[in-house]
Amino acid sequence: MTDPLSPITLPPPEDAQQEGQWLRAALLTWLNAEYLPEPANRKIAERVSQVFVRQRMEGENDVGSLVMAILTELQAFDFSESFYGEFAVANAVGDLLFDSLGIDRCCGRSTTLEVSRVGSLRDGGNAAGDIN
Length: 132
Fold this sequence. Notes:
This protein is mainly α. About 55% of the residues lie in helices and about 0% in strands. The protein contains 5 helices and no strands. It starts with 15 loop residues before the first helix and ends in a 14-residue tail after the last helix.
């Protein structure tokens, strides 16, 4: 039997709002690059950012728990105008967080999830495009 994996945690937030802005921009970049840019992508990225910020402000640092909270919240989101669903979005968030922290996801990389394109959670996402 293999040993269980240790949880991956983020450092406590210095500025949860800034982290949320980074995640919103990084996720929007990913959503627009993976399929097609569509108006629903902004709504998805904004909702994910809101959930992420709330969770971080409540003290959640475990990446798995953050992804599950986002997945749970997105089950009530209307994806009818999107190519995506809650599982694809939640998984992308996990990948973005891992990539930002420099954690190898081991099972291959999407060409659209490059830290050079979305920046890093630690640097506030300076490489990510502005989505305002």
